Amino acid sequence: MVKIFSIIILSLTLFQETAAGSQEVVVVQSLRVKPYDDALRGFKSVYAGKIKKLILPETEGADAVRTVREAKPGMILAIGAEALAKVRRIKDIPIVYLMVLNPHAPLQGEENITGVSMSIPPEKQLAALQKVLPNVRRVGLLYDPAKTGFLVKKAQLAARAAGIELVAKEVHRPKDVPELANSMKEHIQAFWMFPDTTVVTPETVNFLLLFSMENRIPMFAFSNKYVEAGALMSLDIDAFNLGKQAGEAAGKILSGADVREILRFDAKNAVLTINVKTAKKMGITVSDEVMTKARKVR
Questions:
Q1: Taking the domains of the chain in order of start, what are their residue ranges?
Q2: If you ran DSSP here, which 8-state letter would residue 74 be given?
Q3: Per-residue model confidence (pLDDT) at position 75
Q4: How far is CA 117 from CA 63, 162, 237, 243, 246, in A?
Q5: φ, ψ of residue 68 in degrees (nearest 5)
Q6: Sorted alphabetically, which Gene3D superfamilies does this protein's record hold (predicted)?
Q7: Contact residues for 100 (Cβ-Cβ < 8 A; gap 6+)
Q8: pLDDT of residue 264
Q9: Domains 2-117+239-269 and 122-237+271-297 fall in the same CATH topology
Q10: Closest to 65 in 3D by CA, of 82, 47, 45
Q11: Which fold has domain 2-117+239-269?
Q12: What is the pLDDT of residue 17?
């Protein structure tokens, strides 16, 4: 009788340890930088379970995939594009990604992966643009169809619904950016900088900022660092809130939800940043209501 009781106790203990282990989340982080750390803080504010953290540059050549597998986690949180690229080879553990600019393009058919992208829905971006520049009706945009074509299709639909004409031109080489931008300057009232690595390079950014200022065509950027460099405005992600969204998805997955039922989603919250100096130079007056809520660069 004692022997049977001991076996039952041992079985229950093993079950509890296995269940606890399956609730562990392994965090694979591309770099130790503030936005990624903020995203992880947001994740932890929602998910209170056990976490094992792996920073890729600090693994000293260790096989990250093997390390993750040995931990036998219930879920993997990939923070950053490099982290996602590493762990996507794992097919039998749920993966939630964070802080990945255009995750939809490289992911095809992976049924164990979901997450929140850094993309802000174009309808939200255009709504912000119209609040800052209510009289704008024609907006220019340059893009490489191989990199952001899917985003531009969404933007075109959103622009049509908002009563805005989107003047979009394809770019296949960074060196073509100046010519294409100059070809549209007489036809646009604002320029929308998309997160496209063919269009946005250190050289082209300098040109586009100068193009914007010389032609008094306000630039709407995707990151506040370009506002600090001279763009009029940006609508940027909030890394902490992005982490909270991922934490909510993790809670569902670790409670037994099928990853395939949790669709990949865009950022909910965004931060509007306005360059006050640029607005003054261009003779743009932004309403007090908008300025009160915006982050300001002076």
A1: 2-117+239-269, 122-237+271-297
A2: S
A3: 96
A4: 26, 23, 10, 11, 10
A5: -65, -45
A6: 3.40.50.2300
A7: 78, 80, 81, 84, 115, 117, 118
A8: 80
A9: yes
A10: 82
A11: Rossmann fold (3.40.50)
A12: 36
Nearest to 26 by CA among 250, 258, 256: 250
Q: Which strand ranges, in their side-by-side order, compose the sheet holding 25-29? A: 51-55, 25-29, 75-79, 95-98, 113-115
pLDDT per position as a tens digit, 19-41 = 334 579 999 999 999 999 999 99
> From CA 260, how far away is CA 272, in angstroms rounded?
33
Residues in the chain where the model's pLDDT stays below 70: 1-22, 61, 102-109
> Which superfamily does CATH assign the domain made up of 122-237+271-297 to?
Response regulator (3.40.50.2300)
Q: Report how far Cα 280 is from the mean position of its chain's Cα atoms.
A: 30
Instruction: Please provide the DSSP assignment of 207-225 as one string.
Output: HHHHHHHHTT--EEESSHH
**Would you say how long the chain is, in residues?**
298
140 membership: H or E segment, kind and range: strand 138-143
**Do 253 and 246 form a contact (C-beta atoms < 8 A)?**
no
